[in-house]
Amino acid sequence: MAESFGVGGVVCGWLRSSLLALPCAISSVDMEKREDLNSILPFLPLFLRSSALFWPSQVLEALKALASGPAVSRVRSGGVLFDSILDLRDSLGLSSGELAPRTASGYALFFDEMMSGMDSRVWFEEAIPGMARLLLRLPSLLEAHYLKSDEMFGEGKAGLRFMGPQEPGLVFLNQELIAALLSCAMFCLFPTRDRDARCPPIINFDVLFASLNRNGKHSQEQKVRCLVHYFERICLRMPTGYVSFERKVLPRESSDHGVTYPTAANWSTSTVPLCSFEVFSSGLIEDQPHEAIEVDFANEYLGGGALKWGCVQEEIRFMINPELIVGMLFMACMEDNEAIEIIGIERFSCFMGYGSSFRFIGDYVDNKPYVSVGRRKTRIVAIDALCSPRMWQYKVEGLVRETNKAFCGFLDQSMYKCRLKWYANSSKQEKSTGISENENRSEVEGNSDSESSQVMDSQDNVGIATGNWGCGVFGGDPEIKSIIQWLAASQALRPFIHYYTFGEAALHRLEEVRQWILLHGWTVGDLWNMLVEYSDQRLNRKTHVGFFAWLLPCNKPSDVRHTSEQ
């Protein structure tokens, strides 16, 4: 049988002759014929032969030594650990030159100087052997994963695979497999050659360790502390839940399978009422106690600078919930009509601060209950805003792009039609919502009332927890972004938005604006049209004030619409 090689797709002749298959193949899974596995194999450090995934023999022996503890492996320091990493990479045909400069000094600095003596002993005597045992099991964990995902979702529907742009779908992983893949990242075993912009980011930890410096950014050290704490936790007690990663796509062409990419006209004519909107001047999205989708202010490449120099909202989330990092392995960059939703992620760390002030402050016990198929009741959606949009964010094209990006993230395509029917019945409206399209409404009517009721009973309490998405380093207008997210959540039929302002000065009147808009009973279309009118005036320099100041009446009756004041 032919051999396939995950390490860059190439292996030297001398290495090929020494490969030994780990005896873990599951006969009912023909691994070599799996399209999902073959799509991700070039990004994995494993090899495939005779329908079995395996490590090369040299890697196998080295991992067995590490799993036996420092008495056998002699790995008791950061410097020796990195030497072992280089040996593993060499056995996989990976060049040490592919790692970031100063990676070796970073491993030595953290584990030999920044970490206390007691913590260091725990790391080398317990965590490193535990991670090595996970890596020894990685081939069998992967094969069992494909078998289980086929059983649960159908063949090839939810197995680990490369998910490129415009490829909606689900990857469903158990937490033990995630831990094994992240152990590969700690040991810098993922291949890096032959990568281009279409490929997902590299998730080896070398750049993060290379950035450590005695006089450098303390936030980098704190990020490493979060990751080290995660490995200590999972080696002490392996979590047993599941995590799903879904690539969500709003089709640009008309489709019978769901809602398509809305136009400006769709937004303008929507009659959907605005959802509840609550403003929080303090608190954090990840600490919110309600049933809500938590927004990740994402980079187009999932994770952004989490494994590099970044330390803002997305990067911090990836440090306190390290299982998110594995999504970077197989998710290509998002396009304008895409979002990524993750359900079931566990939080491991407490923190304080933001940016340069970020600090790991200890263990976090995640008590979120479990929902369907063993996933925690934590829902995160990654949506990437326009970067440095300047005046383009006030153009209709910019408004459509940003509102649709949020709408894609907030929308549940599988439930939307039933929810629309429930909304239509409860509000006694016969008109189309605009975005849903008349043909979608007619399809909804084929569902039973009891089905709609069951959907709403199980879903209508899931709102949105968000904040200043696309602002800060991305340069978006906080006033515009808050309104855009309100529009998107309302049109997605979410029951509420909980908006965390993080003390943003530009939003000090947000509560006043919220009350004023709700007082008028506006629909999504009404608020959209006001936003477009303001943006047009801003572009044409007819106004220089922010949207809130433009919208709110100034010593005028509250029932006078702003358009009559211009």
From TrEMBL:
InterPro entries: PARG_cat_C, PARG_helical, Poly_GlycHdrlase. Keywords: Hydrolase, Signal. Residues 1-21 form the signal peptide. Pfam families: PARG_cat_C, PARG_cat_N. Substrate binds at residues 299, 313, 354. Residues 431-457 are annotated as: Disordered. The active site is at residues 296, 314-315. Residues 116-247 form the PARG helical domain. Belongs to the poly(ADP-ribose) glycohydrolase family. PANTHER family: POLY ADP-RIBOSE GLYCOHYDROLASE, POLY(ADP-RIBOSE) GLYCOHYDROLASE. This is poly(ADP-ribose) glycohydrolase. It comes from Musa troglodytarum. The lineage of its organism: Eukaryota, Viridiplantae, Streptophyta, Embryophyta, Tracheophyta.
